[in-house]
Amino acid sequence: MTAPLYRLTRDLRERRTTAKSLIEGCFERLNASDERLMAYRLVTTERARAAAAAADLAFDSGADPGPLAGIPVSIKDLYGIEGLDTFAGSPRAVPAAWRTEGPLVRHLKNQLAAIVGKTHTVEFAFGGLGVNSHWGTPRNPWDTTCHRVPGGSSSGAGVSLMQGSALLALGTDTAGSVRIPASMTGTVGLKTSSGRWPTDGIFPLSPTLDTAGILARSVEDVAFAFAVMDPWVDEDPWTFVDELRESTARAPVLGFGEAALWDDCDEHVAGVVSALLDDLDRAGATRVTASLPEAADAQDLLRLGNVVSAELAELLESEMPEWLDTLDPLVGSRIRDGGSISASEWLARRRRLDRLAAAAADRFGDCDVMVNPTVAIGVPRLEDVQDLAGYRGTNMACLHNTCVANSLALCALTLPAGLDDDGLPVGLQLMAPQGEEERLLAAALWIEDQFGPPPARLGVAPGAPS
Q: Fewer CB atoms near the end CB (10 Å): N or C, the chain?
């Protein structure tokens, strides 16, 4: 594995390494394993090499194109990139309206980030397990003996990081689609607050709940990339990370105990997270009882399809009717179940979401963040979720805890808590109020600093290149 993003950005500027060596190392690891791991729908080799060469030329001449210049990045195949088709997990390219670049991709390209390629996604991002019958399901690198799911819908994102083909991954999160793959692959994933980052240039699943997000191999890397990408951060990313660290002189107050986020968790998952929280208590964190009764309402809405099914169904019926005939059965059945609601019911659900979000915002008075298991179940085997009977309940259980942050308009982050009895990653989810990403990242960075970044705690996934 390569060095942390935070350090590599300094090494590039001080010419201790080159963008060319970074990208060639990424391609070497990709070529050694992607036939098996299947992180990418499309690898953009020449584009990435050209960006790396331009970054090296700029550094050699004393210029600095931007903090992520020369850094290898993977991008979920919901994001438009000029000159490339977007498939959004479907069997054919989506209309041109969703192939145009939005501000996030343009920002990366303008600072000469090396875009490695477009990673796989669940069809139209509508699923939490990462399964795709059209393109195949990426393989979770933590199990070399059987094919386990990578988490979805940003199914190739976490795999690309563990594979070592990217140092940063762009994903999207509507009910957990950044945090679930991060949790299942032992990486760190950040769901930004609704509206904080633009979603222009991203194929929409639910305009109401869609958010952009990022995955990286450590909290420090996520914090650095967040500062680069976020339009509201004024400091340079190195200063931002340093100031976050200074703010962690006081250990965070962790809100704990909401039944809806614990009672339905597998015992071995809850046990790993509880053990980490006990360690954090001993390290100086303060744990307080925190109630979030709106979580159960959010989970009820998930079971009904929330507003997501209806919004995706309307988009396909109005703009892409030909795609309805080729839907992945696991996606199509859920659209049909939840999409046929009246306009009045959709409006009622929207009002309910607004009320729940307003109430949830007042629940953080006694804590910095709330903590719970990210995914309530262990990492499933692909063979157990390939048919509708096995898929439905498992997918719902997978989204059970992550959907809460989206429906309650919170920002959220997952970081690795440890490995379960099968040697598979378990995630700790932190949630904070809308617009409080700095608070969220500071608490997560304090936790990481107690035990080291994920590779130090978990080791390297046995199915990933070393």
A: C
